[in-house]
Design a protein that fits this description.
By secondary structure, this protein is of the alpha+beta class. Helix content is 14%, strand content 27%. It is built from four helices and nine strands. Strands 1, 2, 3, 4, 5, 6, 7, 8 and 9 form a nine-stranded antiparallel sheet that branches. It is globular, with a radius of gyration of 15 Å. 43% of the residues are buried. The mean pLDDT is 95. The protein binds a DNA duplex through β3, β4 and α4.
Length: 194
DNA sequence: GCCAGGATCGTCT
DNA sequence: GACGATCCTGGCG
């Protein structure tokens, strides 16, 4: 995984991230659900312009944008597109692959489907918090890997984003069709082409 | 199984 | 001083 991967349209990156591996320290999983947020999008934190909070979104691609949601959950995003173009992919769900016992301890639950099936859940499982805001995704503790051959033919569903009030009708949520690890099911017949 | 409500705090008005 | 890109629990069928 290199910088160029992220230096592309946020929608392309959001789709291409499905099936890719994300490791943070000893824990890792495969991305099965993402959402795209672009600068011209009212639901994007950068829509209102540059502030102290969203500054990372305006920076170079391939960095982590982490912010606190509802005062409780840290949400993990990957910054995309050239510097100055504020856009990011929200990582919404993972299929756990490594460090499952550590994930269980951090989450305080046993069921593997529930460990990373939501944006706030996976950050808790991976140990991601606000201290990683702005961190380079190409450096430790992150270790990202490209989609493996077994995921090469994955079908990707496109549907409406979850939990937002502005621009809620845009179909910018992407999920791996057939995965048991997504945060919510996708509507029938909502498929994007690779 | 579904739904309503509460937890909790950084950010911006 | 209001508002979330959320999650979990408890109450009710």
């Amino acid at each position: 995984m290199n910088r160029e991967f992220f230096d592309r349209s946020v929608h392309q990156v959001a789709r291409d991230l499905i099936g890719c591996g994300v490791a943070v320290g000893e824990t890792a999983g495969v991305i099965v659900e993402t959402e795209a947020y672009e600068a011209s999008d009212p639901a994007c934190h950068a829509y209102i312009g540059r502030t102290a909070r969203n500054e990372v979104l305006f920076g170079p691609p391939g960095h982590a944008y982490v912010y606190l949601s509802y005062g409780i959950h840290s949400l993990l995003n990957f910054v995309t597109e050239r510097e100055g173009s504020a856009s990011a992919v929200l990582i919404r769900a993972l299929e756990p692959t490594h460090g499952v016992e550590l994930m269980r301890e951090r989450r305080g639950r046993e069921d593997i489907e529930g460990l990373c099936s939501g944006p706030g859940k996976l950050t808790e499982a991976l140990g991601v918090d606000l201290s990683l805001n702005g961190a380079d995704l190409l450096q430790p503790p992150f270790d990202l890997s490209e989609r493996s051959a077994s995921w090469g033919a994955v079908e990707i569903a496109a549907s409406e984003r979850i939990g937002i009030t502005k621009a809620a009708d845009l179909p910018w949520r992407y999920s791996a069709a057939g995965s048991r690890y997504v945060s919510r099911p996708w509507p029938a017949g909502a498929f994007a082409s690779l």
